């Protein structure tokens, strides 16, 4: 019985490491309305934290419990979800910026980007992106 548990645990570790390797690639995608826009990490962070960027892009986010959002918060924003929610609560109390609109799924993000010029969202790097959308930032590890 002990050997069977160890084998099951090793299988979970191996499969989990393969899944996480794919999940580490993240892209920020925008409907740039045929303009060539490239962003760096600081610009993406500022955009999704409500700071003015002068780019006219409107961010959308995924649900709090999505793997993409956790990865985005960790690798791009550099804060935990709890810290981000605290930040937005302070902004709301001060009457300042609002958080990005939250959509239900990656497919909803892609559909929203297609329908709204100058909107921007994030997806895992292995997601097929329609030709009319542009990858404006990429992070891989």
Q: How many strands, what sense, and barrel or not for the largest sheet?
A: 5 strands, mixed
What's the alpha carbon Rg, rounded to whole Å?
Answer: 17 Å
CATH architecture: 3-Layer(aba) Sandwich
Global geometry:
globular
Class by alpha and beta content:
alpha/beta
Look at the structure and give the mean pLDDT.
85
**Cα end-to-end separation:** 37 Å
Q: Could you please say which CATH topology applies here?
A: D-Maltodextrin-Binding Protein, domain 2
Number of domains: 1
How are strands sequenced across the largest beta sheet?
A: 3-2-4-1-5
Query: What is the number of helical segments per DSSP (H or I, 4+ residues)?
Result: 5
Poorly predicted residue ranges: 3-23
What does the model show?
With 141 residues, the chain is of the alpha/beta class. The protein has a single domain, classed as Periplasmic binding protein-like II (D-Maltodextrin-Binding Protein, domain 2), CATH 3.40.190. Helices cover 45% and strands 16% of the residues. The chain has five helices and five strands; from the N terminus they run H-E-H-E-H-H-E-H-E-E. A five-stranded mixed sheet has the order 3-2-4-1-5, with helices on both faces. The radius of gyration is 17 Å and the shape is globular. The N terminus is likely disordered.
List the helices and strands and how they pair.
Blueprint: H1 2-23, E1 26-30, H2 41-48, E2 58-61, H3 67-77, H4 81-93, E3 101-102, H5 106-115, E4 119-124, E5 134-139
Parallel strand pairs: 2-3, 2-4
Antiparallel strand pairs: 1-4, 1-5
């Amino acid at each position: 019985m002990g050997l069977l548990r160890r084998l099951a645990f090793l299988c979970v570790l191996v499969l989990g490491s393969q899944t996480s390797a794919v999940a580490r690639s993240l892209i920020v995608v925008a409907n740039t309305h045929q303009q060539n826009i490239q962003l760096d990490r600081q610009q993406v962070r500022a955009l999704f934290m409500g700071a003015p960027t002068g780019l006219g892009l409107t961010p959308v986010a995924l649900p709090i419990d999505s793997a993409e959002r956790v990865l985005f918060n960790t690798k791009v924003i550099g804060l935990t979800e709890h810290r981000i929610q605290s930040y937005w609560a302070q902004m709301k109390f001060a009457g300042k910026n609002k958080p990005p609109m939250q959509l239900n799924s990656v497919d909803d993000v892609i559909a929203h980007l297609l329908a709204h010029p100058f909107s921007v969202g994030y997806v895992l790097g292995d997601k097929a992106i329609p030709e009319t959308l542009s990858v404006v930032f990429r992070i891989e590890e």
